[in-house]
Amino acid sequence: MALVIIASMAFSVFAVRLIDIQVVKGPELASEALNQRLRTTELPATRGSILDTTGAPLAVTVEARNVTADQTLVTDPVAVGAALGPILGVEPSVLATRLTGTRRYMYIAKDLSPKIWKQIEALRLPGIFSEQTSRRIYPGDSLAANVVGFVGADGKGLGGLEYGMQEVLAGKSGTMTYERGAGGRVITTSDVSGSDATHGSDVQLTIDRDIQLIAQNQIAKQVKASRADSGTVIVMDPRSGHILAMATAPTFDANSAAAAPDALRGNRALSDIYEPGSTSKVMTMAAIVDQGAANAGSAFTIPGQLKRGDKLFHDSVAHGTWYLTLAGILAKSSNIGTIMAAERIGGRKLYQYIKAFGIGEPTGINFP
After folding, report:
1. Could you write out the three-class secondary structure of 86-152?
2. pTM (2 d.p.)
3. Alpha helix (H) ranges present in the chain?
4. Could you give the CA distance from residue 265 to residue 330 in angstroms, rounded to a whole number?
5. Of 271, 292, 308, which one is at a domain's C-terminal end?
6. 55 Rama sector, left if φ>0, alpha if ψ -120 to 50, beta otherwise
7. Which end of the chain has less neighbouring CB within 10 Å, N or C?
8. Cis amide linkage into residue 250, ω under 30° from 0
9. Residues 300, 231: one domain?
10. Would residue 144 be called left, alpha or beta, if left means φ above 0 and alpha means ψ between -120 and 50 degrees?
11. What is the pLDDT of residues 106-122, one digit of tens each?
């Protein structure tokens, strides 16, 4: 009789416990178990390409893979390390140490090619996973590097157009939530939820890579020949204003931008300040002709020096009296002749023309 009572009591306790687990705590425990199986992975947006005027790539994004590990699922770190070592080019003992512990998520290798990941995936190693990512490459290395710029380790633009056009190029990442079973493998029959990535847009420049290459090579030679600190070349189509080349020397390799000195990674063509010098004479002459104050054949008598206010102006070479046309003044780049011709329209009107040519105004070149 005592045994029956004890058995009944034991069964009652078991039944109560079973009801507590299945009915009272059942939904909570099921939810907890599901959460342990669920994993959310970021679906990176593909960064848009930067192209030259012909569509040739100056900066592109290629698929890559990061290898991750869940240490709690790696049953034999030594064996897994020995298997991964030859593929990753890392000492197996180093990998074994990194694979030992209780961390649920850690990086083993980054930016691997899909081909290498397939070798690893074929081994079906417990606790070893991959996440899709991307890598930014610059096919021309230093070609237009000061214009195109570069990205950081996180894939965000840090210089040049990569920085200035970040929002356009970057796009928006998505997510994928899925279940994984024993060994961390994806349960293919489970529901997958998330949101798709919105890929970035391409940016096409007016730069022509062939002209850019010639400009870079020539300015590099000239900087070396003249022992200059730096040099810049800008090639523009005067009919449209399109920039066909913008070269700076010395420059840097955009694929290894982090190793380059800060001074080389900027764009001197846009950041340095230069006096326009005699190039401003073209705008002055255009204003004079447009106002009808003189034409190409108008005659001027040019003295060897000219005093205006408290300043005495000279030309680049000492000379006596010159008799020049307006075209001749421009051909000889005469400072005195230009001043005398400009006086025919006055300083206020000349200033209006200089402003109309864009001097002192934003260029609209869309460069940071």
Report:
1. HHHCCCHHHHHHHCCCCCCCEEEEEEECHHHHHHHHHCCCCCEEEEEEEEEECCCCCCCHHHHCEEC
2. 0.67
3. 2-19, 26-37, 77-88, 92-98, 114-122, 145-148, 160-164, 166-170, 209-226, 262-265, 268-271, 280-290, 326-332, 335-342, 347-356
4. 37
5. 271
6. left
7. N
8. yes
9. no
10. left
11. 999 998 999 999 999 99
HSE-up of 56 (CA within 13 Å, CB side)?
Answer: 14
Q: Is 77 within a domain? A: no
Q: Do the domain assignments include residue 32?
A: no
Reported as a single tens digit per residue, the pLDDT across 322-337 is: 999 999 999 999 999 9
Query: What are 143-152's pLDDT values in tens digits?
Result: 999 999 999 9
- Dist. CA 170–CA 155, nearest whole Å: 9
Q: Report the relative pairing of strands 57-69 and 128-137 from DSSP bridges.
A: antiparallel
Residue 19, token pair as written in the block: 């009801």
Mapped onto helix, strand or coil, the DSSP state of residue 27 is helix
Catalytic residue among 278, 316, 333, 334: 278
For CA atoms 336, 340, 345, 348, give the dihedral sign. positive
Expressed as residue numbers, the domain containing 349 is 277-357
- Which token pair is 309? 């206010």
Q: Catalytic site residue 298?
A: no
